[in-house]
């Protein structure tokens, strides 16, 4: 549990987040997801090319339930397998990853889940991953859905 090496000095210095003090006491296994995280600016801005959910771990080839680094989009296995995503965070400080197994987002620096459906910067990743995984848009998106249209609708890939 307590094996964080160095680099954790800025944790818990934000005093305005009174809404998460009780989530640390939850020993029941369910920890409330944060709706704010200081590490969001490190996210990749290219949301259109993310690996498919079945992509194996980049290091050990573990085939499923891997994590996607939302900074560099590498796919690595979980702490329950060979901890390659955790290692990646320790080596790169890319702190936010998206689970391909349940599409939850985790911030290693915050040591907490993030609510990918409420955090605006995470929504596109969650949505894209959801579509890749299930073949349809996630059910929660109903309000701002008109925004997708101004993409240059997929011009025909080199028709010959
Ligand atoms: Zn691995
Ligand atoms: Zn990364
Ligand atoms: Zn964070």
From TrEMBL:
PROSITE patterns to which the protein is assigned, alphabetical: ZF_UBP
Alphabetical list of SMART domains matching this protein: ZnF_UBP
Alphabetized InterPro entries for the sequence: Znf_RING/FYVE/PHD, Znf_UBP
UBP-type domain location: 35-134
Keywords, sorted A to Z: Metal-binding, Zinc, Zinc-finger
One MF annotation (Gene Ontology) recorded for this entry: zinc ion binding
Pfam families with a match to the protein in the record: zf-UBP
Name by which UniProt lists this protein: UBP-type domain-containing protein
Organism for this UniProt entry: Gossypium stocksii
């Amino acid at each position: 549990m307590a094996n964080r090496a160095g680099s954790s000095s800025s944790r818990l210095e934000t005093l305005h987040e009174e809404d998460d003090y009780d989530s640390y006491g939850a020993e029941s296994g369910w920890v409330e997801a944060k709706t704010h995280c200081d590490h969001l600016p490190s996210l990749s801005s290219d949301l259109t090319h993310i690996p498919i959910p079945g992509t194996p771990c980049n290091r050990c080839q573990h085939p499923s339930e891997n994590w996607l680094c939302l900074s560099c989009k590498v796919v690595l296995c979980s702490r329950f397998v060979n901890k390659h995503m955790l290692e990646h965070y320790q080596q790169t400080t890319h702190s936010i990853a998206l689970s391909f197994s349940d599409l939850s987002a985790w911030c290693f620096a915050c040591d907490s889940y993030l609510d990918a459906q409420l955090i605006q910067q995470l929504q596109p990743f969650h949505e894209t991953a959801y579509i890749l995984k299930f073949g349809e848009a996630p059910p929660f998106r109903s309000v701002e859905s008109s925004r997708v249209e101004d993409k240059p609708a997929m011009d025909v890939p080199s028709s010959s």
